[in-house]
Amino acid sequence: MLTYPNIDPVAVSLGPLQIHWYGLMYLIGIGGAWWLAKRRLPDYFPEWNKETLSDLVFWVALGVIAGGRLGYVLFYDLAAYIDNPILILEIWKGGMSFHGGLLGVLLAVLWFSHKQQVAFFRLMDFIAPLVPIGLGAGRIGNFINAELWGKATDLPWAMVFPTDPDQLARHPSQLYQFALEGVALFTILWIYSSKPRPTMSVSGLFAICYGIFRFAVEFVRVPDEQLGYLAFGWLTMGQLLCIPMILLGAWMMALAYRREGRLA
C-alpha cells in the first residue's frame, strides 16, 4: 500500500485570503492550453492575432467554469444547492462536472465561431487536443483535495485517504483519470491532429476516447454518495453521460470521413 501524501489543499494563505491547489490547477490547465494554442494557431487560423486567441481562451475558460459548476449542480446534487444556493459559489471545494463544462465550452465556441465567422467544428478541432491539459490538472486537484476516490482494493498502490470515514485502502482513481483523461488523451489527440484530418474527426475522436476512459474508470470509482448507482445496479451518472458521448463521437468520425470521401 502506498502512503497518501496528505498535501494541504490550501497552497497559499495570506490572512483571510486562501489560494487553493484546486483553483491553481485550473489556472495551470488554462495556461498550458493557451501556450499550446499559440503553437497550433498558424496551422488552423493564420489570420488571427494574439488578441483574438486571448478572447477565445477567455470565453472557453468561462464556459468551462460556469458550465462545469452548473453541470455539477444539475446532474449531481441539485437538492443540496436548492437548499443552500450560496454553495454554488464555493468552487474551491470541488464539485465540477466535466459534462457540464463541455456544454459550456460548446456554447462558448458556438458564439465565438459565429462572431469570427469560422466553421464551428473547425474551431472545435483546434480546441479538442488542448482540453486534456485542463482535465489532467483538474484530476490532480481532486487528488490533492482527497475527493472522488475509488473503491476498496488490496492492490499494492492502494491508498488510505484522510477524507474517507472508513479509512480503507482504495484505488487512487483520481490518478487513473489523470493518466487516461490527461496524459493518454492528450497524446492520442496531439499525434492524430498533427496531420491534416477531416473536419470534425478530431472532435469525434476526443468524444470517443474521453467517453471510453471515463466509463472504464467509473467501475473502480465510488459513485457520488447522494446518487449511488442509477441503472442496472452498476451504472453511475458519469457512465450514463458518457454513453451518448461515445455514440456521438463515433457518428461524427464516420460522417467526417464519409464527407471527405465524397469531396475526394
From TrEMBL:
A 1,2-diacyl-sn-glycero-3-phospho-(1'-sn-glycerol) binds at R139. One of its GO terms (cellular component) is plasma membrane. Pathway: Protein modification; lipoprotein biosynthesis (diacylglyceryl transfer). The chain crosses the membrane at residues 19-36, 56-76, 96-114, 126-144, 175-192, 199-217, 229-257. Keywords: Cell membrane, Lipoprotein, Membrane, Transferase, Transmembrane, Transmembrane helix. It is found in: Cell membrane. Signal peptide: none annotated. One of its GO terms (biological process) is lipoprotein biosynthetic process. It holds the Pfam family LGT. The keyword Transmembrane applies. One of its GO terms (molecular function) is phosphatidylglycerol-prolipoprotein diacylglyceryl transferase activity. The keyword Transmembrane applies. It is a multi-pass membrane protein. Its EC number is 2.5.1.145. Catalyzes the transfer of the diacylglyceryl group from phosphatidylglycerol to the sulfhydryl group of the N-terminal cysteine of a prolipoprotein, the first step in the formation of mature lipoproteins. Belongs to the Lgt family. This is Phosphatidylglycerol--prolipoprotein diacylglyceryl transferase. It comes from Halopseudomonas sabulinigri. The lineage of its organism: Bacteria, Pseudomonadati, Pseudomonadota, Gammaproteobacteria, Pseudomonadales.
